[in-house]
Automatic annotation (TrEMBL):
Species, as recorded: Handelsmanbacteria sp. (strain RIFCSPLOWO2_12_FULL_64_10)
Record-given protein name: Sialidase domain-containing protein
Gene3D superfamilies per the UniProt record, alphabetical: Glycosyl hydrolase domain, family 43
Length: 271
């Protein structure tokens, strides 16, 4: 969402935002796809179902004149190359007044999908302009399209947007944008998260479980990767994704390791 705001300031809103994909054999060296997979689309998240189907969720601005009127949509692919038409995502019993934005979707052990989202109280204008503490909620779905909200707040803190959630071993980790840095929270059950004393340079994060910890991606003149063992200081690994020729921003990364051992990433570019 912070990247969405930057895009709005630079070029008149999210109508110039595009969702792109990238692939990797090792999670470090990434090859960007030849074309965007969704337009007027922002803040993507990706998940692989038990059947191997990839689903990209994004904030959908097609046909919507203003921030505050956005919705979530999803596209699907069996091979990561050919994508379906978008389907509107619903969130039943959503507790906040504004839109559900900044999706992060995790596959549960039973095959259901858990959607984490930033629930703003803004009904018009930028969702991230709401005053006071901001809240991250979650919802459950068996088909990845129709979600039902789970009771309670997953995490609450000042200035936060753009949650990205990954499970490492028995623990759940949430990485959140707070301006130009990334905050970290931890949970034993995926429902109640508590802030931990770890930040990363750069905002709008994504995270990937790796052996011995996580790889965290943040936005700093492109997308930068960090290696963290969940204990000590993070180690910067270098640039993962360039902004791209003709683009002002590359941000909002979300990555996963597929069942075949390869890596897949989605991210946003803004002209």
């Amino acid at each position: 969402m912070i990247a969405l705001i930057l895009s709005a300031l630079l070029q008149g809103g999210p109508f110039n935002d595009e969702v792109w994909t990238a692939t990797s054999k090792d999670g470090l060296a990434w090859t960007v796809g030849s074309a965007a997979v969704a337009s007027r689309a922002s803040v993507p998240g990706v998940v692989e179902g038990k059947d191997g189907t990839l689903r990209i969720y994004f904030v959908d601005f097609s046909g919507r004149p203003d921030p505050g009127e956005e919705a979530l949509s999803v596209i699907e692919s069996d091979d990561g190359k050919d994508w379906s038409k978008s389907t509107r995502v619903s969130v039943k019993d959503k507790p906040n007044k504004g839109a559900a934005v900044d999706p992060s979707v995790v596959l549960l052990d039973d095959g259901r999908f858990r959607l984490f989202y930033f629930g703003s109280e803004m009904t018009r204008g930028d969702p991230a302009s709401a005053k006071g503490p901001r809240r991250i909620y979650s919802a459950i779905s068996s088909d990845g399209v129709a979600f039902e909200n789970e009771e309670g707040v997953r995490f609450e803190h000042e200035r936060i947007t753009d949650p990205d959630v990954v499970k490492v071993g028995d623990a759940w980790w949430m990485f959140l944008s707070a301006g130009q840095e990334t905050l970290t929270a931890r949970s034993d059950d995926g429902l109640k998260f508590e802030k931990v004393d770890r930040t990363f340079k750069g905002g709008v994060p994504g995270a990937l479980a790796v052996d011995g910890g996580v790889r965290v991606f943040t936005c700093r003149d492109g997308i930068v990767s960090w290696r963290w063992d969940l204990k000590g200081e993070p180690r910067e690994e270098g640039k993962a994704i360039e902004r791209g020729k003709g683009y002002k921003i590359a941000a909002d990364p979300c990555a996963l390791r597929r069942g075949d051992g390869t890596y897949f990433m989605v991210f946003k570019r803004a002209k």
